[in-house]
Amino acid sequence: MKENEKTFNQTSNDREFSNEKEKTIDLDDVLKNEIGQFGRYQIRTIILLSLPMLMGAFSSEYVFSAASIPHRCQIPECGEVGKDFELQPEWILNAVPETNSGGLSSCQRYKPLGLNGSLDFCPADIFNMNNVIACEGYVYGKKNSVVYDFDLGCQEWMRAFAGTLSTIGTLLVLPITGYFSDRFGRRLALIVNTFNFGLFGSIRAFSTNYTMYLVLHFLQTCLGAGLYSSAYIFATELVGPKYRVLTGAICPSMFAVGLMALGSVAWVTESWRHMILFLHMPCFLIVSYYWFLGESVRWLLSKQKYNRARSALENVAKTNKTEISQKSMEALLRPKAQMTVPKGGRHLVKEVLRSRILLRRVCTTPIWWIASTFVYYGLSINSTSLSSSMYLNYILTCGIEIPANFTTILILNWIGRKPTLFGDLSMARLLLYLLGKLGISVVMMTLYVYTSELYPTEYRHSLLAFSSMIGRIGSISAPLTPALMVYWQSLPFVLFGGMGLLASLLVLTQPETQGMKLPDTLAEAEAIGKTVVK
Q1: Tens of pLDDT along 441-454?
Q2: What does the UniProt keyword field contain (predicted)?
């Protein structure tokens, strides 16, 4: 009797041990050992995702469509009735004062004495050259900006408000897209964002006034600017651990290619309206992805949509010309205890507050993002000094990000995520402009990779979006730094260095994720740094 009981207990223990071993099989194991980490399926999907990644860069087109253009006061006493006149006729210094730097004043003119001249003859004695007044109308040197169409002239704050609205809209869209993506799927989030982006962007090309332009620009970013983060999460969840950093380099590189394409299109397009249409009309092609882009397998498994997950896994194996074993399939499609979703679903905030480890990460990662975006955009706003062409400036400063991204592959795989963030953030203040831009581009790419690896699949997009959203404080603050030079010439650079140092020290509070599996559950995310899972 005792011998039978012992045999029964031994058999039960063997079954439990066997079941435990089966439970340890996860998607990363299957990718590495069976269906392929970076096969034809992954390559094809990343190529498809590259298009919306590239399009995501077009949210910055306000840099050109709302660009500042040369202008001066209109002189109606000398026959100027309208905006289309020579910017610097021979007589202009008789009517418009010079600035301290030797250029024409853009916003002031001499007070008229009530006499008239002509376009060919406008003498100084018809103006009081001891008294200046503000412009009542403007003459423009270029036409390819909303400043000309909507006669913004010296309303610099109004012109710059387009950039502020873009940042606010991006700040709002990130948590919205994160929730939508985690709730309804990566594919649908990508398609909805890209469609909204193209729709509101295309309509904005027909704006009849600046208010309409601003409202549509805000709606475009608020409802559509999440297309890049959607594509990024989609791509990184698809590949195995060995190729995650490579994928993390491809994504921002495609974004940089989009920025360069934006600068090139703006350079060769005379009308800002035509430029906007040319950039945004292709967005509607992404709707077709609903029929031939498969959903993220990792998301399907995290939501326990096992029938769809089975079909997706079989499709991946077939495309990669590999096979997935029945044992692995059953292990993946077996609900994990910690993945059981309570009736009514889980509440993200409660889960974060319940987990001290996750709460510490949620409090730390946004500070990394604030510091990085602060330095990144702080360097970017000074890019006009590189050459005489604003278009060439833009293309050069965006192009430098591509070698930075692929340099990061070697750095991250060699020394890991934490040393990369720690070193580049704290030294950013010491680097020259282009080298500094390359360094901060390394940091930005590392941030995406490292942040996404710290959070579980079920909350990954929401928490990555939250960190990026809070990080927009840095991009909002960066344009204000040049004004601080009035108080102390080096103050902006001290702020860049101080923020970088603070963020780099906080990096030390989080575990290294190099070579770790991408966590699917909260328990797996909490275990990062405690156990080494190969």
Answers
A1: 777 778 877 888 88
A2: Membrane, Transmembrane, Transmembrane helix
494's tokens: 């001290």
Q: Which residue in the block uniquely carries the two structure tokens 């009517």? A: 95
User: pLDDT tens for residues 69-100?
Assistant: 899 999 999 989 889 899 999 999 999 998 87
Please, which residues bridge with residue 109 across strands? 133
Question: How far apart are the two ends of the chain, measured CA to CA in Å?
Answer: 43
- Distance, in Å, from the CA atom of 460 to the CA atom of 452, rounded to the nearest integer, reads 6
Beta strand residue intervals within 348-495, DSSP E: none
Q: Is 108 strand, coil or helix?
A: strand
Q: Which amino acid, one-letter code, is at 367?
A: I
Residue 515, phi-psi category: left (phi > 0), alpha (psi -120 to 50), beta (remainder): left
Q: Which of 30-44, 144-158, 380-394 has the lowest mean pLDDT?
A: 380-394
Give the Cα separation of 41 and 315 in Å (integer).
Answer: 8
Residues 6+ apart with CB under 8 A from 69: 140, 141, 142, 143, 144, 145, 147, 148
How far out from the chain centre does Cα 119 lie?
Answer: 49
Residue 379's pLDDT is what?
Answer: 63
| H/E segment holding residue 72 | strand 71-73
Say whether pLDDT at 413 is over 70: no
Sequential DSSP letters for 118-153? -SS---GGGEEEEEEEE-SSEEES--SSHHHHTT-T
pTM for this predicted structure: 0.75
Q: Is the dihedral of CA 343, 348, 353, 356 positive or negative?
A: positive
- Say if CB 330 and CB 51 are below 8 A apart: no
Q: Which residue's entry shows tokens 């002189």?
A: 75
Which two three-digit tokens encode residue 422?
A: 């720690």
In this predicted model, what pLDDT tens digit does every residue of 303-329 receive, in sequence order? 889 999 999 999 999 999 999 999 999
How many C-beta atoms lie closer than 10 Å to residue 404's C-beta? 25
What does the alpha-carbon distance between residue 252 and residue 178 come to, in Å, rounded to a whole number?
A: 18
